[in-house]
Every structure is written in C-alpha cells, then in structure tokens.
Amino acid sequence: MIAALEGIEPIARKETLGMIVREELRSALMAGRFQPGQKLTIRAVASALNVSLTPAREALYNLMAEGILESGANGTIFVPKLDEAQIVELTKIRVNLEGLAAREALPHLTDADIDALTEINAEVCKSDEDKDFSKLMSQNWRFHFGIYGRSDMPTLLRIIESCWLKMGSYLNVIYPDYGEIGTGLENHQQILKALRARDADRLCDTIRVDIEQSSGYLIEMIRSAK
Amino acid sequence: MIAALEGIEPIARKETLGMIVREELRSALMAGRFQPGQKLTIRAVASALNVSLTPAREALYNLMAEGILESGANGTIFVPKLDEAQIVELTKIRVNLEGLAAREALPHLTDADIDALTEINAEVCKSDEDKDFSKLMSQNWRFHFGIYGRSDMPTLLRIIESCWLKMGSYLNVIYPDYGEIGTGLENHQQILKALRARDADRLCDTIRVDIEQSSGYLIEMIRSAK
DNA sequence: CCTTCAAATCTGTTATAACAAATACCGGTG
DNA sequence: CACCGGTATTTGTTATAACAGATTTGAAGG
Description:
Two copies of one chain form a homodimer.
Chain A: H1 17-30, E1 39-40, H2 42-48, H3 53-65, E2 70-71, E3 77-78, H4 84-105, H5 111-129, H6 133-148, H7 154-166, H8 168-174, H9 181-197, H10 200-225
Antiparallel strand pairs in A: 1-3, 2-3
Helix pairs in contact in A: 1-3, 2-3, 4-7, 4-10, 5-6, 5-9, 9-10
The first copy, chain A, binds a DNA duplex through residues 14, 16-18, 41-43, 51-55, 57, 74-77.
C-alpha cells in the first residue's frame, strides 16, 4: 500500500454516450431551443448526434423519468406543454424548495460569495441592456444556483434544477417580449439586500416574489396565446 | 368524424417491458427487499425477470435518473446507502413538500375522505398489533398519500414519492425493531385531529413531527450500526 | 374534388452480438 | 505467507437487426 495514495477518491463517472446525449438535450432545453409540445423522436436525436438508437433512447427516457420530458399515448416523446394549472403547481413547489435552499445556504454564504453574486447580477443587468437573452438566461441561472448551491443539499439542488428544466422551453417565450424585465432585475437587488442583511425570512420572501412574478408573466403569455 | 367521440383522450401508455421492470424494482425497493448499498447488475435484473439487457438497463437507468438508485465509479448501479447528512437533507425536503401537499389537500378533503383515512389508520394500528410490518408499511403509504393525493398536484406527488423511495431500503431497517412505534401511531392520530379541525398550520406541524421522529429514529439506527 | 383503402414509411420496442474495461481467480515467486 | 502478474470471467456500453404498430402517402374509385 502506498501511503501517499491514502484517502484518494476513485475518479467518478466515465462519460458514456448516453450521458453526453442527455446533457446535450438538457442544455438545449435550458437554452429554450425546443418549442413547447415539440415531438422528439429517438431516431432524430440519434442521427442529429451521430449515435445509435440505444444511447439516444437512454437519454430521452432518463429525462422522461425525471419528468423533464413527457410521453404520449404510444410512446412518442415530446417537450411538455404546460397549462396554467401546471405552472401554478410548479410555482408553488419552486417557492417552497428554493426558499428552503436559500434559507439553508444563508449561513454558509460568505461576504465574498455575496460580492461574487453581486458581480454576476451586474452581468445579468448588462445582458439585459444588450438584449442578449441567451446570455441573460444563463447568467440568471448562475445567480440563483450560486445561492442555492451553498445550501450543501445536493438532492434538493437536483429537484430544483429539474423544476427549472420543466419550464425551460418557455423561457424563450418569456424573455424576448418581457417588457417589464426591469422588475426581475429589481427583484435580484432585493435578494442581494436580504442576503447582505442576513435576513432569512426576507430572503425567502424576495425569492418568492421573483418566482411568482415571472410565473405570473408566463401565465399571462399563455392566456393571451390561447 | 363522430361527434360523440370529440375531446376523448387516447388511452395512455401501453406497458412496455422497461416500465414493467421499473415498477417491479420500485415495489421491491418500497417493500425494503434490497439491502442499502446492494449492487444491482443489469444482467442479474434481466435474468431475474427473464428479459433482455435493454429493458433491464432502461429500468435501472430511469431509477438512477430519478435519484432512486445511484451509480458508482464505473457504471455499477447500487441501492443508495444513506449517511446522516443525506437523511437530514431528505427530512428537510420532505417536511417542506409533504407540508405543502397536505396544506393544498386540506380544502379538497371531504368529511368522507377523512373518515376513510381514519379507517386506513385503524388498519395501520391493526397491522402494528399483528407485527405485520410489510402490511404496515403499505398501509402507512396509503395513509400519507391518501392525504397528499388530494392536493391535485401530480408533479409534487411524484417528487414526494421519489423521496420516499430513496429511503425505501431503510424502511425494513426501521420497522422490525421500532420499539416506540406507538409514537408513530400517535402522530397519525394527531394528523387526523388536525384534519378534522381543518387547521392547516397544525396539520403541517403534525406531519413535520411524524417525519422528523421517524427520521430521528433512523439516524439513531445508522449511528448505532456504525 | 373528396373519400377510401392499401402499400410504403416512420417509429418505438426488444433481443442479440461485439467490444472494452473492470474484476476475480489462480498459480508462481520472493 | 504475502505479493505480483496474467488469464478468465464478469459487467457495462453500444450498434444493429428484426419486429409490430402507427402514420403517412398515393392512387384508384365514387
């Protein structure tokens, strides 16, 4: 036994094709590159990424098991098309879980962390000015998960992530026309303020407002689209 | 086009082998028939259920995607072995989500529903007297999900279910030696009382107590086992 | 022009084979 | 007896083929 190698963890997960395909689909979903309700055939995914049916099917079915994709009558897989009730439900779940994550993260967040979050938020604002919605979305992700990540609750994080992903295909519906995006930026300011004040209750509340406002806007869009 | 058939949904999901295998594994997990940390090979599952590798792999990977099973360094799949931190995390998540589900369910629960729950709880008590832990576990499931199910929040229900499943392999660790199981039964009485009083806050609180007590007991078991 | 029916195509499902990496086993050596 | 090395086996990964059911297409007939 070599003493210097004591306690070294074995390198985890060798990347399989199935994982790569899944990650590819995830980020496409998160970037809003799919339309709500769009059908995803196994063969289309397979040939698009130049893999055989097996890993493509695995990726699609994994996302289905996570509730990120849905399956229709005869095994057809598609991007979920959310109705109002589902958005309301997801909103309630998110308010609870993201509030919990933030509450748990608060004691672990250092001043330096909060400075970094302020930095990220500045980039969010800049992307908004530039109307670069793709950047805005990914930086918004970084901002929120920058907070939640400090909760030290990996399972919770995964659940929250899959909630975000479920709404992923609607993000590009929201942002390009989000006239009042300024309110979202204001919400981030309030979140930062609550973080600095180390006020857990107010933190939860500001996050709740942030989530409910964007959901409310999404519901409006759905209504008017119908 | 036949007018009378307008708006009728097509019958959903024809059962595939992969789904059957997954359901089989789920119920085995829920019944506590696996040891925490037990390794599950694709070929073992496949030959046990007389299917080929493809559906067996699909089922295992779906459960992995849900976070119910875990994967080690080189793709080996095993039943998660929870440490104290993970139990604490799952407990916090469950307190939040099951509290939310109960709170949402409360307005939808009729007096008849509550009577039915009282009935189920009587069976729980009877199974406890008979020391029939297998029955006790499934009836305990029916009791809790009988409440949560009325929340009309299918996504939330699925998340809660997967939380339960993650702890599934530990249930048979808890019950057979659960000396103070009487406290669990007392908790159910308190839950029923809060339901009858239509008191949402107290309902959440009694559910919290129920979850935290059983988790606390589980943590004790883990500690003493180590 | 619309309907209808059958053939062709698309799509999901599953088993199998081939491959590569990891693990277990076993005999030999210090 | 402990340790090393190689072989045999196990195990995960992926592509492919065969199959069945659904969908689409297209041509013939009303």
